[in-house]
Design brief:
With 338 residues, the protein is mainly alpha-helical. The chain contains 16 helices and 5 strands. The protein has 3 domains: 45 residues, no CATH class; 181 residues; 39 residues. The strands form 2 sheets. Strands 2-4-3 form a 3-stranded mixed β-sheet, sandwiched between helices. Strands 1-5 form a two-stranded parallel sheet. A hairpin with a 3-residue loop joins strand 3 and strand 4. Helix 7 packs across helix 8 and helix 15 packs across helix 16.
Length: 338
Amino acid sequence: MNGFSLQDLSDELKNSLNKQSLQRLETGEAQPDSETISLLCKALKVTTDYFFRESTVSLEDLTFRKLKKLLVKEQEKVKAQTVDFLERYLELEDMLGLDSEIKFPPKAFKVKGAEDVQKAANKLREQWKLGLDPLPNIVEMLEQNNIKVQLTTADKAFSGMSTIIKDKIGVIVLNTNEEIPIVRRRFSALHELAHLYLDLSSFDEKQSEKMCDVFAASMLLPPAKLRDFLGEKRTNVVMKELSIIAGQYGISMAAIIYHSFANGIISASYHKFFMIKYNQYRTKEKEFKVYEGKENSERFLQLLIRAVAEEIISTTKAATLNNQKLGDFRQILDSAIK
């Protein structure tokens, strides 16, 4: 979860335990005393409960498409963080008697082409009562619809991944690396949602990724709204025009212009011409300033506070589930009251 080698951990412990001692603990040849467990908890940023919690989630047999862009060490870090997140989240929901099951049949919407993908996006917007409005906080929207979203920080080459646990629990992992613009993170979240929602068995990997991009664009900016903004046919589009739409809907200008091409509003030749001009114009600063929104969820914390308020769990247990010291969690509660 921390990306440490045994030597890294020994260094973090200021060599109070050497690499060989840690290896004996890891393999079970030696057992830690309470002082050692306390040192490990501090170094690894976990609570004591972590070492005694029953393992309930396994990702061993699952293949994550986009993790291949990461070094093996980083892959294991992301997987371990995801397992820990899910175990704590599912335990909390179970204690509250909440259903963790995804609210649609996983990978069940059969897709034969881009038109089907747009129909799928329209259907999901309708089911979730989103209308044609902008989506202000996609992570919160996903969480409120029973999809667990783990936010992690990794190399910028990795944007996100998704999977189904136990054939019913939807999971999306997003990279919060500061070099990734928020519009890209929003797009990645909905791209991964497509992998959970769509049956893409008719396509190879490259085609599947393209279909997921179509879904993400259609969720972010419904084609009907796109036509309201741009009209049915255009021979020229102005950067400022796209910037205004991007700011309202939290989608990159590049995604809007490709979305316009995919929906027949602009020609292939104009799309190519525009992208050459766009890449000359674009800077990272301008890309970041297109949209500034909030992309996180307070659902897990809200459920924790609810469980404490209803005396289902103690404040100590809530702090453990939030991977915090008791005093730090109490500060959260106190700040909410103030």
